[in-house]
Amino acid sequence: MAVAASVRRTPLIAGNWKMNLDHLQAIAFVQKVAWSLKDAGHDFAAVEVAVFPPYTDLRSVQTLVSADKLPLAFGAQDLSAHDSGAYTGEISGAFLAQLECRYVIIGHSERRNLHAETDEQVAQKVTAALKHSLTPVICVGETAEDLEKHGQSAVPVGQLRAALAGVTSAADIVVAYEPVWAIGSGQAATPEQAEQVAAQLRATIADVLGEDVAAKTRILYGGSVKAANIASFMREPNVDGALVGGASLDVTEFASIVRYQKHVGA
Ligand code: 13P
Question: Which of 48, 110, 142, 178 is catalytic?
Fold first, then answer.
């Protein structure tokens, strides 16, 4: 489609650690990733790198990144829709902003499935993130059952439309298409499948927020991404990066994913 064909978007490779690595392990891991990428001469302006550690690691990661001026972005895996108050166990976007988080993942399928997060809650969290100048990484994706019943695009497109309900301005957002059946299964979508849904998601952004926002919004693919398949996804015109789970916990593998442009045949 015409939208965005000519706009250059900086690719983003993001590691969602999920509930892995405590704050001490996080310090060692982030140091190793940064050193390994610097040693390899990685151009961080050409391919952005972000990590999403558990909440309890964020202060340590922030301190390290800031003290050593590491060219890595970081963010949280969720946030509260509220700013403060009687919400036991929740974390406000204001707190995340104080820790210099640039991003926050919202609506991951594990939150939707294991914590019964609804489209409405996802939309409220997106609004909360933007209010605190955090860039939401809005996750959408169909289950195997959805795929059979509704095809590939209908559910992710519906989830995205709902998530954008409270977004009015030329917001800075990232969208992650993560088919639930591909997460942690070792069975990634094909690059063609990812491209098809990414194109539909971009058309949805154009419809809701306008062509300019659609053209600059990065759409990531997630679900069993590894060094061996990343280059094939990145060749697709509407796929602007990856949200990586399991493979983001291995320094060599994650660094190799980030360096996909150097892969043979990439
Ligand atoms: P895997 O890369 O382990 O399949 O996880 C993907 C994911 O859920 C990232 O948010």
Answer: 178
Query: What spacing in Å lies between the alpha carbon of 184 and ligand 1's midpoint?
Result: 6
Which atom, in ligand 1's list, is nearest to the CA of 223?
4
Question: From ligand 1's centre to the CA of 10, what distance in Å?
Answer: 21
Question: Per the residue annotation, which of 108, 110, 195, 236 is the catalytic one?
Answer: 108
Angle 191-209/227-234 helices, nearest 10 degrees? 50
Say which residues have a Cβ less than 8 Å from residue 73's Cβ, sequence separation at least 6: 48, 49, 50, 51, 102, 103
Q: Hey, which of 108, 178, 257 would you mutate to test ligand 1's pocket, going by the most ligand atoms within 8 Å of its Cβ?
A: 178
Per-residue pLDDT reduced to its tens digit, 30-41 = 999 999 999 999
**The tokens of 232 are what?**
């094939």
Task: Tell me, in angstroms, the distance from the centre of ligand 1 to residue 180's CA.
Answer: 9
Domain range 2-262, its CATH number among 3.40.50.300, 3.90.1640.10, 3.20.20.70, 3.40.50.970 = 3.20.20.70
Phi, psi of 208, rounded to the nearest 5 degrees: -85, -40
Q: Tell me how far apart the alpha carbons of residues 39 and 42 are, in angstroms, rounded to a whole number.
A: 8
pTM above 0.85, yes or no: yes
- pLDDT tens column, 179-207: 999 999 999 999 999 999 999 999 999 99
